[in-house]
# Entry
Amino acid sequence: MIEIFNPGWLAIIVDNGRYGYGDIGVPPSSALDNFAYSTLNYLTGNHTDSPVMEVMGRGFAIMFDVDITCAITGAKVSAYINDVPLKSWTSFKATKGSILRVKEVTEGLRYYVGFSGDMVLEKAIESFSTNLECRFGGYKGRPLMKGDIIEFNNVRIEEENAVAERYIPSMNPPHLLRITEGPEIGHFTPNSLKNFLKNHSENTYSVSTKLNRTGIRLEGKPLLFREKVDKSIISEGILPGTIQIPGDGQPIIMLYERSMGGYARIATVARIDIDMLAHLKPKDKVLFQMLGIEQAETLWVKKKRKYLMTYFG
Amino acid sequence: MIFLRYGEHGIRIVFGKSIDLETHEKVRRYYFFLKSLRIKEIIDITPSFTSCLIYFDGELISFQRLTSLLMGREEAMKTVEIPKPTLHEIPVMYGGECGPDMEFVCEYSGLSDNEVVEIHTSVIYTVFTVGFMPGFPYLGTLDKRLYTPRLETPRLKVPEGSVGLAQLQTGIYSFESPAGWRIIGKTDKKLFDYKKEPYSLLQIGDKVRFIKI
# Structure
């Protein structure tokens, strides 16, 4: 078993999501950085859909009561096991009685901690992911807290394994987000759209402090609605990465906690950049670049190939 | 009915432009048709007032192939079995602490609270869609006399079971949540239970009658 000494700002259990229930309003609640999540399960030798911890902030600390292989991916951290520094994106063996501490997050926002073994948790609606708003899934439907204990089955020591530096994504701002047109892109004035897509530093948006797993509010030059266009739409299904524009014109990037929305959908973050949304922090600069769908698809196919190289290259 | 692309992995199938029963019936029929096809490349389906949103697995199928596959199966839509809507009675405590916006609704509509309750309970509503949060039903259509604008600034928190009004819709908060709808009452009926299938008490197309308690 392991014991949580300190959960950092927020530590929750996630997996690759709860899909197939959009008709009753159940959102995916999946790990926000899918590449970091998948790579973590690769490093620990787990199934591709195993639950892991998604953590924000420094201070995270756990105590091991078992010898087990573990790894950290996602945001780059300075982490220690007892007093020995660890490398991110590299698996390591933790011994019984040792303590893992994350002292600093040096790049990005969310990091993922996984273990070579099966955490003893119950699935809720076919997934281990925590739905924080409705308090189900994960660890008793809530964030991990000091004193929580997680038991394991099938504990293993795996060969140490690392992701080559060149495959670890950069998470430093400014973030260039490539997007494709959303259903209501026509609701905005051509001038304000032009500004939205201008890649000049004076036109960037910055990430506000209103940021959680549901969405990220940006601040910048407001989008303007065309005359005679309703500022809200008849609520409709939305996809993760959809950028909605509420009445005040400031973009909100939706993540994995909503299946429907009632604001104009100006664009959708392309698959190639969607994992980066996990690492947008307050004050980070964000730039948008519009892609055609085929371009977006081509870029994603290329990136996927690079991902596969990570594992088999 | 039109097929529109939305992002790399989304298809919007759009049936109309307004909230009305005719469009709703088309959405609902198509949703059950989609479900009946059991296409493994479809990851999720979100039916709403005017459209069905398909989220598909781009690793397994392309947009073009999926849309032509769907169009090729349209004959089957005529014979698809659509479940009979269930009528649910939802007991509600109106006004007072349970309905902090009752006073506003009375003022806005020029009706007494008894009249508001009488009108609200006199209609059999249709579940146009379930969303926003798990199990939250968007119910219509509200009697025009109860038309109410949303709150300018949403409340930070309303309790689970809160019954609200927004324009010509009424709905029930299935979980404690921030809320922009005007709250006129509260029910103890559990709308969502993650431990028990089908998880959501109300399904698209079901009927709801509110009962004053």
